[in-house]
Amino acid sequence: MEIKKILWPTDLSKCSEESMPQLTSLAEKYGATVYVLYVAEDLAHHKSWYGDFDLSHINKIVEWEKEKATERQQEICQKHLEDCAPFRRHIAVGDPAKKILDFIGKEGIDMVVMCRKGEKGNFDMGGVAQKVVSNSPVPVVMIPSAP
Amino acid sequence: MYKRILFSTCMTEYCGHVFTFVLNMAKENNAKLWIYHGLGRLNLNEEETNRKIAEAEAHVKEVYGNKLVDKALDDYMINVSDGDIVSEITKLARNAKIDVIVMGTATKSPIAAGEDIRVGPLGQVTTNTILWSPCPVLVVPPALVPGLTRR
Question: Is the Cα dihedral A103, A107, A108, A112 positive or negative?
Fold first, then answer.
């Protein structure tokens, strides 16, 4: 079982941070690189539903989100990953589940580690987690979140 | 890393492939392996229930026994029970202090060469095990089964 690339898709929430102990243990055990992926929602796709509007506002919001996500990603990686595993940070814009599945194929990921529930936590299992685990071509480790 | 692994099986061919993955994982981690097969709610009397469980245990040994011998994995236990499968899995995971549960995506997963690897909705047992499990759940996709068509 060769695991050299582990993907940690995260919404940068406290919930997803709970998967860190598992993630770092797996990365250390297999000497794997951790790929940290945050996917920002593509707000521009709403455009066609409601008619024309100034796209520059949307772009400004998406840029702001990417900037803040980069800061938070850096903070989490410094706190948890710097001393135990090599890591790479990525930010994408689009549908989270689709982007995660695309990323798995594009980067040749060997395993995915994710929390079963995201920040919103409205449902028992997050919609993104469910789509990823149903369609992932590689093993997915689902980490239970604290109740 | 993982010292106590629970493999939950529905005894399909797909589970056979997942079992190969689990064996490698158990060997690499020098872990103890629990093999669990749930029969569901049987609605039978005690004698018939015990007979069903004994038969299922023998079937599990017959199907997985050779692979265990080939891998020289001695530290394992076979558990078969009736009752709600998800409750039984989570109860076993809690009682045996399992580090990780390993299972497939769904009983009706594609398995024949040439079939598309895409599965339908995640199976009920897997979904509910992920929801109620006290430990991480590792889901092995049909895409790892040799011969299946990749997207």
Answer: negative
